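User: Just a sanity check before I run the rest of the batch. Below are the structure tokens for the first item. I only need the designed sequence back.
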């Protein structure tokens, strides 16, 4: 399984495309517009395509989009993905950014909702790491500082394949349990955007009781304002004609300013 498709050409999707291409994957990426709008990402080993074609040709398909956009994209994935394709959601639902979604129940993890829209089993992965962590954080398997990344979804060959992929990227794969348990790695959880080692990831995943899902949903609201404003800034920078690298640097500056 070497043919990877990515739907979503934002800073996470673009960064993921580059990292996978670096490790020899055949990467094709698409956005909601025409392939020629991806000239800043589709260079070298990365190809740009129309969304339906990217979905059709992918053995592993990553969805790296805001949830507001996934509501529309889900039909394209449902109708075009190969039967054996591994589908991975790398995003997160933020109510302040994404608004109301059709048939959404806040009692369910976001990826479980998406799985129902696509009518396929899917996986949750790479949603708890920042784009800078994904770009710069990969380390050799023997490095004690290696970051752990949870993968939630059903057990079997597909999950094992994603474990292998995460390891290739330079991170320690951690079993995140079922898709119903993927709330444990969503915004508001102790492992979200913290770049912790695998042992700490496992400890946090193992110790949380089911009733903490409500607590995590409340904590998620703290990310709403900053996420919505960050998304608006990215869109503004795109409209100004900035490329992926320029946007990443601007966003890194904004993040450092916000933290300080």
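Assistant: Here's the designed sequence for the first item:
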């Amino acid at each position: 399984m070497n043919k990877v498709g990515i739907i979503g050409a934002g800073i996470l999707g673009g960064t993921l495309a580059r990292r996978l291409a670096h490790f020899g994957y055949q990467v094709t990426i698409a956005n909601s517009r025409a392939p020629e709008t991806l000239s800043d990402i589709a260079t070298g080993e990365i190809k740009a395509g129309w969304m339906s074609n990217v979905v059709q040709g992918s053995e592993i398909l990553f969805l790296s989009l805001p949830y507001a956009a996934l509501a529309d994209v889900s039909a394209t994935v449902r109708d075009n993905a190969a039967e054996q394709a591994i589908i991975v959601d790398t995003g997160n639902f933020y109510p302040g950014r994404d608004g109301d979604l059709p048939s959404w129940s806040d009692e369910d993890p976001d990826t479980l909702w998406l799985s129902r829209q696509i009518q396929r089993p899917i996986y949750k992965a790479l949603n708890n790491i920042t784009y800078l962590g994904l770009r710069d954080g990969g380390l050799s398997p023997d490095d004690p500082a290696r970051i752990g990344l949870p993968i939630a979804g059903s057990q079997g060959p597909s999950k094992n394949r994603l474990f292998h992929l995460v390891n290739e990227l330079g991170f320690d794969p951690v079993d995140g349990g079922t898709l119903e348990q993927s709330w444990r790695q969503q915004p508001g959880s102790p492992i979200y955007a913290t770049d912790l080692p695998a042992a700490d990831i496992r400890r946090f995943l193992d110790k949380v009781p089911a009733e903490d899902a409500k607590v995590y949903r409340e904590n998620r609201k703290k990310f709403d304002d900053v996420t919505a404003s960050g998304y608006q800034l990215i869109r503004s920078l795109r409209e100004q004609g900035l490329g992926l690298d320029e946007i990443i640097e601007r966003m890194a500056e904004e993040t450092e300013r916000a933290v300080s």
